[in-house]
Write a structure and sequence with these properties.
By secondary structure, the chain is mainly α. The protein has 6 helices and no strands. The chain starts with a helix and ends with a helix. This is LTXXQ motif family protein.
Length: 143
């Protein structure tokens, strides 16, 4: 009986400590993002907000053109985002591919215009966040 109680306490300790470590790790990235966002001017913040709204508009326009098969792929939460994209690409029509390409080019141009408004310090923070986001994606995909 004593061994059982000790085992339960040890298990709880391990679970709680691992949970605390994962919270600290995730919070660090959010803190950097928050700090970057707080250092932006109101105009820069509105640019970022309009980028987010534009992404949502693009997403809804694309999904409006999807077939049932494509919607099933997008809705399959068992697949990773990368796997959903790989499964979706062969099913896309030429018009959908052109639309995706146009959206990508538009977002790239808006991003470049946004980067031109940043100070050197803000740009360094921005590039650091971008680099961390790319590394996180590679770590998740197993590269």
């Amino acid at each position: 009986m004593r061994h059982l109680i000790v085992g339960i306490f040890l298990s709880c300790g391990v679970v709680l400590s691992s949970f605390a470590q994962s919270e600290n790790h995730e919070g660090k990235g959010r803190g950097l993002k928050k700090e970057f966002y707080q250092n932006l001017s109101e105009e820069q913040k509105s640019q970022l907000d309009s980028h987010k709204a534009l992404r949502e508009t693009h997403k809804s326009k694309m999904e409006a053109t999807f077939t049932e098969e494509q919607l099933a792929i997008v809705g399959n939460k068992d697949l990773s985002r990368r796997d959903r994209r790989k499964a979706l690409l062969p099913t896309m029509t030429a018009e959908q591919k052109a639309m995706a390409k146009a959206h990508k080019e538009e977002m790239k141009a808006k991003n470049e215009a946004f980067k031109e408004t940043l100070t050197e310090e803000q740009l360094a923070q921005y590039e650091s966040l971008k680099h961390k986001r790319k590394r996180r994606g590679k770590r998740r995909s197993g590269k």
